[in-house]
Amino acid sequence: xxxxxxxxxxxxxxxxxxxxxxxxxxxxxxxxxxxxxxxxxxxxxxxxxxxxxxxxxxxxxxxxxxxxxxxxxxxxxxxxxxxxxxxxxxxxxxxxxxxxxxxxxxxxxxxxxxxxxxxxxxxxxxxxxxxxxxxxxxxxxxxxxxxxxxxxxxxxxxxxxxxxxxxxxxxxxxxxxxxxxxxxxxxxxxxxxxxxxxxxxxxxxxxxxxxxxxxxxxxxxxxxxxxxxxxxxxxxxxxxxxxxxxxxxxxxxxxxxxxxxxxxxxxxxxxxxxxxxxxxxxxxxxxxxxxxxxxxxxxxxxxxxxxxxxxxxxxxx
Length: 317
Description:
- By secondary structure, the chain is mainly alpha-helical.
- Helix content is 77%, strand content 0%.
- The protein has helices spanning 3-30, 36-41, 47-56, 63-76, 89-124, 129-142, 146-160, 176-211, 214-221, 226-263, 269-278, 282-310.
- It starts with a helix and ends in a 7-residue tail after the last helix.
């Protein structure tokens, strides 16, 4: 099986997973107790008008028929109409989803840079006080709540030191890229915390493994400088693992981003979904679940492609 065919098979595997996700997302909304039409309109309309609204949204049809109408709306009609705003679901979700992607991308950068650096330092200084201190910090940090950690960051760096904004995506009136980066720092660090420390553990183990290998001892005996030895050889050998772990951790990072958006008042899809849950806006909830699941599956596929490119030996795995 050649490389392109194998990638094609992996891409096709996304389809049945998405079908299962769509069924679960639909049932989550359809079978949740409470009538969403009554929750939104009962105080303003008569029972006859409520029936007309149900017919407009197709909620008077059999459940199986509602599902296929909803799937058709996902592809043709912008995910259907929001119960609270009356506008296409994707018109609401996509701008928020872009904001979530910005925050997630910043979190991935923090995870990669600091996770790799922390793990590398611990691995290079294995069995020294530096290694033990780093691992103590990693152990403590791994047990922290992202929600609590975000509040601590706000308290210290925004309220006490006043170095960074408390929350939101931009200052009043907007301040360009620099302003956006200032607003990104605290939520990105908070969202990346757990994934960063997981990556640090794997990088540390990888560096220790490379240091104990025969090629490392041979190269060192030949007088190759530590900078070349670690910066070129060791890093190149553990790079596929770094990419693989980061890709797997993006799912954890996305979950953390949803909590972080609430803490930092970031206008992302997590904040939008919380508002939709409070308003029983099921079309928005269902569309958001499918959108996030699709993003997660695409990220995993891209990760596989990158890992295959970095390490051809893993293509048969």
